[in-house]
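Re-run with default settings, no changes from the original entry. Doing this only to confirm the output is reproducible before filing.
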Amino acid sequence: MNLVFLASFIALIIVISATIKKQDKLKKQADAEFWARENRANFVRNKPLDDLNYIKIPLESFPTHLLNEDPKVLECIDILESLTSQKIVNLTGWSNTDLKLEYGTGNISVLSEYDQNYTVLVRTLQKWADALIEAGNTEEASVLMEFAVSTGTDIGRTYYQLADYWNAKGKWEQLERLIHSAESLRSSNREIIIKNLRSRSILNMNG
């Protein structure tokens, strides 16, 4: 009995050791590939940025007439007004190495600025939408969230609140559209957003 246990124990140690070696080999291979790409990226010449998907803020179509005495809403409007003169690009899911390979090393700073502007944009839109929803202006908030989704935001709350709004309206085809939009995301949040939206869709079907 002891010999059987000993043999099983030794076999387990061998399997664990082999697994660790395999994982270590894969990590070293991944690291080598990363640094090879990074080294190659550092020598890519700058390319024109004309083909970037620049985002324009349609501030005139937003509900700026509502709650404009609320300091939180005023702050959101001020931020968006300041962003209208800035270049905004959604680069979510792109690593610095990806950007350097695609557009050149010298463009990384300006691209990071464009992406940071995008982050501020979608966070501000959601903050404004939250304030409107809290005050009972869900329909107006949906305008802000719809625009955020159209730009490829990966803020989960934007999708969930918008889904709840469309569900309350009985417009479940809009939920399917949201799922389709989420499926095109490059973000690491993609799967959890899709899963959450699909669970809402199933609840509607069962209901």
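The chain has a mean pLDDT of 88. The CA atoms of residues 21 and 27 lie 10 Å apart.
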